[in-house]
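Batch manifest line 1006
LIGAND: flavin-adenine dinucleotide
JOB: complex structure
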Amino acid sequence: MCVRSCFQSPRLQWVWRTAFLKHTQRRHQGSHRWTHLGGSTYRAVIFDMGGVLIPSPGRVAAEWEVQNRIPSGTILKALMEGGENGPWMRFMRAEITAEGFLREFGRLCSEMLKTSVPVDSFFSLLTSERVAKQFPVMTEAITQIRAKGLQTAVLSNNFYLPNQKSFLPLDRKQFDVIVESCMEGICKPDPRIYKLCLEQLGLQPSESIFLDDLGTNLKEAARLGIHTIKVNDPETAVKELEALLGFTLRVGVPNTRPVKKTMEIPKDSLQKYLKDLLGIQTTGPLELLQFDHGQSNPTYYIRLANRDLVLRKKPPGTLLPSAHAIEREFRIMKALANAGVPVPNVLDLCEDSSVIGTPFYVMEYCPGLIYKDPSLPGLEPSHRRAIYTAMNTVLCKIHSVDLQAVGLEDYGKQGINDCDLTQLGIPAAEEYFRMYCLQMGLPPTENWNFYMAFSFFRVAAILQGVYKRSLTGQASSTYAEQTGKLTEFVSNLAWDFAVKEGFRVFKEMPFTNPLTRSYHTWARPQSQWCPTGSRSYSSVPEASPAHTSRGGLVISPESLSPPVRELYHRLKHFMEQRVYPAEPELQSHQASAARWSPSPLIEDLKEKAKAEGLWNLFLPLEADPEKKYGAGLTNVEYAHLCELMGTSLYAPEVCNCSAPDTGNMELLVRYGTEAQKARWLIPLLEGKARSCFAMTEPQVASSDATNIEASIREEDSFYVINGHKWWITGQGRPPVPTHGRMPPCTCDPRNLSTSCCSFCFGQLPFLGGFLAPRSGILDPRCQLCVFMGKTDPHAPRHRQQSVLLVPMDTPGIKIIRPLTVYGLEDAPGGHGEVRFEHVRVPKENMVLGPGRGFEIAQGRLGPGRIHHCMRLIGFSERALALMKARVKSRLAFGKPLVEQGTVLADIAQSRVEIEQARLLVLRAAHLMDLAGNKAAALDIAMIKMVAPSMASRVIDRAIQAFGAAGLSSDYPLAQFFTWARALRFADGPDEVHRATVAKLELKHRI
Ligand SMILES: Cc1cc2nc3c(=O)[nH]c(=O)nc-3n(C[C@H](O)[C@H](O)[C@H](O)COP(=O)(O)OP(=O)(O)OC[C@H]3O[C@@H](n4cnc5c(N)ncnc54)[C@H](O)[C@@H]3O)c2cc1C
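JOB STATUS: finished
ARTIFACT:
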């Protein structure tokens, strides 16, 4: 394994040039092959590994770069960097370990691109089983070479894996000699390594042929007198090797294997039938092999009297009436051939089951290659493109067939059948579809996703049948069971396309009367659930297990699609095992003197949540259809998970699903430029940064956002901000060094000031005896302030505001004080009052453009509001669960509290109110999924109006049932109540939402 030009140091170039000059006269004209002059009998073939037996690192890098949106050529350039003394070559000589290599290599790539490059993932891909697979054509060639008595060897620049074994994804038994650079401490093109290989083979250079994909390595081999073949693609190389060796390396029929025991057919009667059919008098034995792929009808290769044939038959056993209709296949193939579609020449249909046990048909064998992997590994991009283009042409030919003219009018209508694949030579789906439309003379269709969904559903249905046959022993393929298990994956894929199509259709529907939209609902009773009590649905209908939740209104977690249901249960388990037990410690941290430093426990829980895949669940599929940034859940799916997180005050932050970061991240996903995303979104998604949203101002009624006064003025290539904001919530909890645990701070304990480290700052006396908190906005992890101000006070009312991304370390941001809610500080995030004085921000930090602030706020606040409501349902469920447990165990006036009628009435009232609110939350989420945030504005307003008061009432009842303890911090009830009350203001007061609902009611319901 090596990389082109790794050896382009001046010394090596000189060696190269000398070798080149010496051997120019020996070079085969017009060919890449290098040979010596004498000798013609070969006794060994020596193979390089990467690029010859398995895909080259360069090819893998190109694929990885496309997938990871890394500029093309970065990896190759970094691999070449430093020549012989660069990290790659030192790694090949085992002078550094895999970890050391990845460290240096990662640094190199990051320096080149000025951003972090995940080289670990490149290395994983390079060494993955999926990629590092020997080319079948090479396996076949090696078998033939050895069958002729020649030796085979691997001579590879190779490396050690972290497990101290060398990376050799090959069957060692195929080779007489294996020489690896990492074992020898020398690399090709050092002549010593070639000599070592020859020595071990016991041969002279002229007795061997060496295949490598790199000219530099070949030149040195040729200089030593070894015959060489330059490998551009394995197929061509094998042909060149055949020519040199003088015998065929591809004697078998590709993609076949001996006939499976369960698929055997009587050879004698078949031979008799074929002799009659073909009019052959004498024949040798009939050779019969089975094609090793394909899931439906078993297919066989037959060789009889120099005729190469293919037979396709029904599988044995009982079959579904319309399935495996080979009679239909035969008729279509014949008709297609008559219409000029390139299909094999079909010879006969035999419906007489007495011949081989089932009906079958026979056609001529077409030699060729079958690509099972659509990425077409091992081919040049141009070759891949040519194959895809040819496939498109054939598809167009098929779809252009006049069904009536060829006698197929009784058959169904034609069906149509993203990462940037273009660089790999594989056209992207859209491009491929355009090619198709162009050839067919069709206008581009908008409902492409419909066809994709349709096709994938069909494939899923077929795969289900394949799986069934694998269970009953009727499958023709050895891989039927594995293939059949793809059903769920393929049907989910189909759903994704269906959901996308749904968004497209609904977005284009005129939004006249949202209240008349119809909903499909399904649910089923769900298991007992609760952190401390139980929650059950008493009146929901049983759902069909076949239902999945994608894009549907699912009203209980048990009716979510299997993967989301699994995620829900994983989260539930995490809450029970990790979060609820941690609450007392987290709560006491919040009450301690260290509360303005982040709790190490919460940081630890974050890592655990990340490891369990419970991270960034909030980004809706609709905003992130490619699932580039989030878990790809629909709003309805997330509603169930968010409610569960809401049962603890700490879980949303632990899972990186807390406000205001979630709203800011969604804002960046929807409206951010690529540069803004790289700068802000990625650190937020990784949980490395925190953010805040600054809109509210003390001097104006900010529930009417058109009132805000903060100014954003243009000055050269900057915007200059001046304004006064308050209630700026920042949820960041930084990994600030805390005394005793982390490196000690350098602050003077006798002279603490506001410039001290966060721990010491937290010790400062504050007004009224409070400890001075850093507000969230002051938090070192709060790196971004999403700022709303006016760029043009004279523009129309809703075009005056703009949104700017303000780095928190910009000079001029002055924190005045932290605010409290009912005396609670919400440490260490806090809510700050802040002045922005001549804060200069580069112009590229503007989101969408000047005057677009309202539009952005509308997009941002909708999801934020509904997330609050989802969590409020969680607060309420937890409160009710705690209440039920309490009243069952506490006696007053001779009986448990639960036997008091007023307590029962309170429980009933709370249950009913929670259920009502949940249904409204789910309905709003469902509408967001179907029609987008804007169209769901009314439903979001309704639930934001309902949920905080509902939660306040439910929690208040629970507090009342608890007695005085309910007000203490021994239980989460007091904090729940505080936040439920605060949410009657935050993200818009109740009255504003009521006004919205009334306005729309009057507009649409008259
Ligand atoms: C805990 C908490 C966190 C917050 N976090 C943030 C944050 O991160 N960023 C941010 O920018 N802001 C934040 N806020 C501020 C919040 O968004 C505002 O308090 C809210 O928008 C109301 O604005 P205001 O306080 O200026 O009230 P005002 O606009 O002065 O309104 C006062 C009252 O007038 C009444 N009223 C208003 N409009 C109407 C109407 N149309 N009809 C009838 N009555 C009406 C309502 O009763 C309202 O409560 C937060 C608030 C809280 C409590």
